[in-house]
Design goal:
This protein is of the alpha/beta class. It folds into two domains: about 10-120 and about 270-279, Quinolinate phosphoribosyl transferase, N-terminal domain (Aldehyde Oxidoreductase, domain 3, Alpha-Beta Complex); about 120-265, Aldolase class I (TIM Barrel), CATH 3.20.20.70. About 40% of the residues lie in helices and about 20% in strands. The protein has helices at about 10-25, 55-65, 95-125, 140-150, 170-175, 180-190, 200-210, 220-230, 250-255, 265; strands at about 40-45, 50, 70, 80, 85-90, 130, 165, 195-200, 215-220, 235-240, 260, 275-279. The chain starts with 7 loop residues before the first helix and ends with a strand.
Length: about 280
């Protein structure tokens, strides 16, 4: 599985903003620690998970203190067990405690995203369907969470509103129909893929006739999905979406759709329980 490549500039910006809101004008509690104190700290996971966020963790410590050393025991995408050591850290006691919360926040959130994505990927592993994320991400962490999705074994939908067309109900109404919307998209950005959201078989046929690249089958029941897949076979790529959960995703995948998209991967997460201890 290839992980999404995140530009270093985005990681640096994520970390800068996180430290700015946490430390502000200075960590007044860390200043109680003698400046010359050096500590060794260990980060462990309290629960099983898929680890993710190494680059964000490292960048957090780097922006605080370039002399802090990190010795990693895991890498992004690794399955780790409860009480397993993730890494050890050595350096200024003051600076380690200042970086601690922000560094842990990144890996607990991204590991949670990767772990949930892994569950969804496993649920459809016996099918040819790929699970996609959506734009329902934590504000400011779009690329970070989409990276975590790939660490968990799922795939990315479009990154934002700029890299692919997803023409939904309101777009269709405002453009006066599916055909007009598709033709306008082709005219303005002929190199980009065009996907149409449809809610019934009539709209599905319109999307096929208009020459869309992909159709999003919104809230279709299982019987309707099977029918739609047969209609679309060899004509257009299919994607199912709408209220799909970990309990229903396998049945949806068995209909033969090419993709299933769900916002759950990035919005229904529970932070992984991690801790940092001074030795």
């Amino acid at each position: 599985m290839n992980f999404l490549q995140v530009p270093q500039s985005i990681i640096e910006e994520n970390v800068f903003n996180a430290l700015k809101e946490d430390i502000g004008e200075g960590d007044i509690t860390a200043e109680l620690i003698p400046r010359e104190n050096i500590s060794l700290a260990t980060v462990i996971s309290r629960e099983d998970c898929i680890f993710c966020g190494l680059d964000w963790f490292e960048e957090t410590l780097r922006q605080i203190d370039t002399e802090i050393l990190i010795d990693w025991s895991v890498d992004d995408g690794d399955e780790i067990k409860a009480d397993q050591i993730i890494c050890t850290i050595s350096g200024s006691s003051q600076n380690i405690v200042s970086a601690e919360r922000t560094a842990l926040n990144f890996i607990q959130t991204l590991s949670a995203t990767a772990t949930l994505s892994h569950r969804y990927a496993k649920a459809v592993a016996d099918t040819n369907t790929k699970v996609l994320d959506t734009r329902k991400t934590i504000p400011g962490l779009r690329m970070a969470q989409k990276y975590a999705v790939t660490c968990g074994g799922c795939s990315n939908h479009r990154i934002g509103l700029f890299d692919a067309f997803l023409i939904k109900e309101n777009h269709i109404i405002a453009c006066d129909g599916i055909n007009n919307a598709v033709q306008d998209a082709r005219f303005h950005n002929p190199d980009l893929k065009v996907e149409i959201e449809v809610e019934n078989m009539d709209e599905l046929q319109q999307a096929i006739d208009a020459g869309a690249d992909r159709v999003l089958l919104d809230n279709f029941d299982i019987a309707s999905l099977k029918q739609a897949v047969e209609i679309c076979k060899g004509k257009i790529i299919t994607e199912a979406s709408g209220n799909i959960t970990i309990n229903t995703i396998h049945d949806v995948a068995k209909t033969g759709v090419d993709f299933i998209s769900t916002g759950a991967l990035t919005k229904d997460i529970k932070a992984i329980d991690l801790s940092m201890r001074f030795d």
